[in-house]
Amino acid sequence: MRRGDEPEEPDELAQDRSTVEQTASRLRARAERRLGGTSPGGAPSTLAEAAQLLHELHVHRIELELQNEELRRAQAELEASRARYFDLYDLAPVGYLSLSEAGLIEEANLAAAALLSTPRAALLGQPFSRFLCDEDRALHYGCLRALRSTGAQQRCELRLAGGEGPPIWVLAEAAPAPQGPSGEARWRSVLIDITTRKHDEQALSDAQARLRLAADVAELTFAEWDPRRDQLMPSSSMREPPEPAMTLEGWGDRIHPEDRPRVIAAIRAFARSRVDTAELQYRVRHNADGYRWNLTRLETLGQPDGQLERVLLVHQDVTLRKQSEDRAVYMAQHDPLTGLPSRALLDQLAAHMIAGAERAGTQLAVLFFDLDRFKAVNDLLGHEAGDQLLQAVAQRLRTSFRAEDLVSRLGGDEFVVVMANIPDAEEAARAARQAIATLARPYDIDGQPLPCAASLGISLFPRDGRTLGTLMQRADLAMYQAKQMGSGRYQFVTEALNRKVETTARLEQQLRQAVADHELRLVYQPMVDIASGRVAGVEALLRWPQPRGTPIPPATFVPMAEAIHVIHEIGQWVVREAVRQQALWREARLPRIPISVNVSSHQLYHPRFLPELAALIRELDADPSALSMQVSEAALLESPSSAKRLLSGLKALGIALVMDDFGLGCSSLCQLEDFPLDGLAVNRVLFERLHTGSTMPAVMDVIVHLGQALKLPVTAVGIESQADLSFVRAHQCSLAQGDYLGAPMSGDEFVAWYGRYSGLPHSEFHAPH
């Protein structure tokens, strides 16, 4: 509508206006007749008639005034309505256009001008198609043709060029408008901005495309099952049309017979449950490849009232993943070198075999093999030859035993065979003799014959134990007894061996309890500076006292603590106790007494050894320079590079380091120089041949001179006589330690000992007792 086309006058207002005009016309005519008319004598009408006329005129005048007031009020309402109309038109949130028959813009509201990015005045006379994207003009012209031919409202989605910005999507609705003054056709058009909706639709389309691509890449297929009608609609993929509907049982025909009952039952149970999701893994028949593995995810598709409507099944072919998992499981359960079951699979399978033997009341044998002199093969011929030998041994063991027997490799040159359902011990002995003979035949390694024999121990279920761990432990001990008898022997577990194992197990349990209850104790043996005679420090020695009987020696319980993995906990306690004792000695007004503690290889190479020791020193606010740690030469040689790193870490904490039992190992001078040491300790065993005419004096000279060259003081441990003391003084050892100077004692006893010792002369002193 053009702005000049004002709204038409209401019918009621026009009728009132006409009535007023007619009444006024009648009164005017009547007044003219009466006032302008004359009597036959030319005299005017009677006064009564004139008065009557004036009264009527007065009444009609009042009526006219009232009607004029109504007209003015109606006119004001019409103007207000017209103003509201134009406000609604201009301020409408959608665009309004009036177009000529040729498609020229005759009128536009503010929203239309904003959509067309042009001032309203500049729009008039412009073709609407000028504001469209080139690709959409043909669609616009088509809508106009349809509008002309049918006269029915038309709608289409168009893109406006949008000035310098991106195109604006609009929904254009066009309808016929009243004809123009010359009878030409005119159109009204409404423009609704749908840009956001189109962007959302495009984003949804892109997401669906990505989903389709991901589904195809992941080889996903989908199906929906209606449990009420038992109707399943499968599809082969998102790109292909769905297959015909079928029942759940009919769909299940393609599932492997071993998996079918489980899968069908699980889907039906899922539909009855209130679980939102579930997963199933099973084998399904494939067109050309036989059966493949499927992973199906179940999802509930419910109604607004929460009732289950359908079950969505999302299938994924996981055959390659399943094969990879199976390979990983196989590798985890089998020795990579020989292909035999590893310890993990041995534990699992042997547990089933033992359970079966217990139910059937039959015997079972565990044979523990160890190759004789295998280390020499590795040392002389190399590890590759050693690996070839292990593979050949594994193959011979497979062929030596029955199909139902379990052959496995523990690691290194150790093998275990579990024989099920044997009638008696002789059957195990016969199998052992046959295996020893088979393994004793020379092996062809790189074209060269290589002899190799094996020793083995045998334990029987249930006589020697009821678990694989116990049976293997006792068979292992029996194997070592067989080795002591010579190469290529076997040995059954004996009653004496069983008693030894039981005693060891009992001691291990007692040791665990002793550690938990803090029953271990530290005793202290003084170390004396030979030149000055002063006390240079003490060595903290671990003791396990017994309520009844003699204490258990460290040589017995320390290896046991390492075997049951409590040595690290013990080591932490030793440091804590040593620091506590130093504080007590300070309270007793003793001078600073450095304490040396022993560190086993198990402690040293424990991954938490350094960080926990550092944390402990911080916690105790200890003086690390008042601590030293003794590590045996053998422990350092287990892994020289790791030992060097760990010793450097200890040095960084400020702790002094001493190589203990020096002279018993085979460390080279280069290794000795590499280690950040602060001293050497010579073991007592070097003094045992002192009076036998051996070369001991020369050896001691070499050790002391080596220490002097490396600026490392040498401590002589195990001084038990004046002769020992004179010997180490003559050979210029720096420190001396032994029962002759002071036996290991408690912290309180050391205070008393120190009080007696402190007044002795510096030379040719005699140790107090």
UniProtKB/TrEMBL annotation:
Keyword S-adenosyl-L-methionine in record: no
Domain EAL, first and last residues per copy: 504-758
Residue ranges of every copy of the PAC domain listed in the record: 154-206, 278-330
Biased composition (Acidic residues): 1-13
Every GGDEF domain range: 362-495
PANTHER family hit by this protein: BIOFILM ARCHITECTURE MAINTENANCE PROTEIN MBAA (PTHR44757:SF2), DIGUANYLATE CYCLASE DGCP (PTHR44757)
Full protein name: EAL domain-containing protein
Protein's organism: Thiorhodococcus minor
